[in-house]
């Protein structure tokens, strides 16, 4: 047999799971939005104990969800381990087809997922719909790649470098984009042949469970599972001996715990962590136009985006004029319940985060900060925060150094490009950054000196699902998206294959 006949997509086995085995029950059952279950080995599983999330706009309970036990974790791990070999043995094209069908399924359920996302997460309905649209595009882009097989002719042998699946993966998801960040992990894991267990955030568990329930229509039992639980669950999953890979999105503090736990069995980790993105605004920009964009990119999702603009650095020549324009545009952003007409900022997602963000507001008085806009919160029902800009706080204040993950942002000044770069890099985070100027030579020169995984010029937030995304410094390890994201679910294997018999 020639080497190329052996090498397809990293597997030599010819086994097949039959992609629709046992799935007909799920295929025909419509999704209901009142019951939410764990999904273990292709079945909807309930638990003795349950809990409820909270609608952050109304503070009313959302539907109850399971609290997985250690036993549930063991069951899901065994099912994933059993599913691994047959799933990895499916031809790559068959897995791609299943993943693309999952994208179609999510697209068909877009309105139901969007409405529930607003109820559970709090984001305005137009942004909930956008999250589902981007999620569908991300799944499709992920399924469009082929893993490369690199061959070198070396006389009597052919040397082949290929990518083989790692084994069972665990995907740990935060609450700010509960559907989008789950699908990125699901699509990349399963298309490369790895079963995955999704753990949604305890603050937004229900949408993630429903997403995985939907996935049962397209994947064999054990390939895609979900467990919702309490604070023990993440620890049980990352410490378990079965998984080969943990893909984690969340805070830098938790990321360090995940890495420590994963190190016991040298699990591969991808860590997508916090950020403190600077926007560097040079003195030659169109002030009104750029101020409007900066307000949008600082306050979208109520500032609860890893790569939201979290420090606005403005050239000292224009800072007063720029601040006035920023204030004008920020005042236009309406805060409210996500289904109200024209709302841009929904509530902070949960009470814990709400209290954390309010702590930054308490610093305003304590530290005598100057409020450019906002500064006072509405009170009453719901975790609402007024978008707030603080004019030139002390450079060593918490607001400048830490990630509030809410709509309160410092405005800072710089005198020249060198100082802008120094200030931008003066953080242990390194997720994203943007540079704004009409002079492209200047922007591109500054951009290349920023210590961050992604740097944009005259924009922020531009994301293509086929392009890798990840953090430098303590903003993460590894990348998601693109071919590099897929390879992170694979081992690289080198085969020295002989061309002829001995
Ligand atoms: P978090 O770290 O508190 O929680 C994230 C997830 O980890 C949740 O599912 C949580 O239950 C789980 N978890 C908690 N303790 C754990 C443990 N010991 N072991 C394993 N899992 C554990 O983060 P969050 O508050 O949900 O999300 C906000 C943070 O996420 C922000 O810092 C934000 O910047 C970051 N984030 C980063 C990206 C990125 O792509 N870099 C994207 C979104 C959010």
From TrEMBL:
Pfam hit, one: Aldedh
Region of interest called Disordered, as start-end residue ranges on this chain: 1-23
Every Aldehyde dehydrogenase domain range: 51-494
KW Oxidoreductase (keyword) present: yes
Domain of life: Eukaryota
Active site: 272
Keywords: Oxidoreductase
Gene Ontology molecular-function annotations: aldehyde dehydrogenase (NAD+) activity
Membership in a protein family: Belongs to the aldehyde dehydrogenase family.
Name assigned to this protein: aldehyde dehydrogenase (NAD(+))
Organism in which the protein naturally occurs: Hyaloscypha bicolor E
């Amino acid at each position: 047999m020639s080497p190329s006949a052996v090498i397809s997509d990293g597997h030599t086995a010819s086994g097949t799971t039959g992609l629709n085995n046992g799935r007909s029950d799920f295929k025909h059952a419509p999704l209901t939005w009142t019951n939410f279950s764990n999904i273990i080995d292709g079945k909807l599983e309930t638990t003795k104990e349950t809990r409820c999330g909270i609608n952050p706009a109304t503070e009313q309970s959302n539907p109850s969800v399971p609290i997985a036990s250690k036993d549930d974790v063991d069951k899901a791990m065994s099912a994933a381990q059993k599913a691994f070999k047959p799933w990895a043995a499916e031809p790559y094209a068959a897995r791609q087809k299943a993943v693309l069908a999952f994208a179609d399924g999510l697209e068909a359920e877009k309105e139901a997922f969007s409405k529930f996302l607003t109820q559970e997460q709090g984001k305005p309905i137009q942004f909930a719909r956008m999250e589902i649209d981007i999620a569908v595009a991300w799944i499709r882009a992920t399924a469009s790649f082929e893993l490369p097989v690199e061959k070198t002719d070396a006389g009597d042998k052919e040397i082949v470098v290929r990518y083989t699946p790692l084994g069972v993966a665990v995907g740990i998801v935060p609450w700010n984009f509960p559907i989008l960040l789950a699908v990125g992990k699901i699509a990349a894991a399963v298309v490369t042949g790895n079963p995955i267990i999704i753990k949604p955030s305890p603050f937004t568990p229900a949408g993630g469970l429903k997403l995985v329930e939907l996935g049962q229509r397209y994947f064999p039992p054990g390939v895609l599972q979900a467990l919702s639980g309490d604070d023990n669950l993440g620890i049980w999953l990352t410490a378990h001996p079965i998984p080969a890979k943990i893909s984690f999105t969340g805070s830098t503090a938790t990321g360090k715990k995940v890495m420590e736990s994963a190190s016991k069995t040298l699990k591969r980790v991808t860590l997508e962590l916090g950020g403190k993105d600077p926007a560097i605004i040079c003195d030659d920009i169109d002030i009104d136009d750029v101020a409007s964009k900066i307000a949008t990119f600082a306050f979208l999702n109520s500032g609860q985006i890893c790569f939201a603009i979290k420090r606005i650095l403005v050239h000292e020549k224009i800072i007063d004029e720029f601040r006035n324009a920023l204030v004008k545009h920020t005042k236009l952003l309406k805060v409210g319940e996500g289904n109200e007409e024209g709302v841009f900022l929904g509530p902070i997602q949960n009470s814990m985060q709400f209290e954390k963000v309010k702590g930054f507001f308490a610093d305003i008085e304590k530290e005598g900060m100057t409020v450019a806009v906002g500064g006072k919160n509405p009170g009453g029902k719901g975790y609402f925060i007024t978008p707030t800009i603080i004019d030139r706080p002390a450079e060593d204040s918490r607001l400048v150094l830490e990630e509030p993950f809410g709509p309160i942002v410092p405005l800072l000044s710089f005198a020249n490009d060198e100082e802008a770069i120094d200030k931008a890099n003066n953080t242990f985070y390194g997720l994203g950054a943007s540079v704004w100027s009409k002079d492209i030579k200047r922007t591109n020169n500054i951009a290349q000196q920023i210590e961050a995984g992604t740097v944009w010029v005259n924009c922020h937030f531009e994301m293509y699902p086929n392009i890798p995304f990840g953090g430098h410094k303590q903003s993460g390890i590894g990348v998601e998206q693109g071919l590099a994201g897929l390879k992170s679910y694979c081992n690289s294997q080198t085969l020295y294959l002989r061309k002829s018999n001995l």
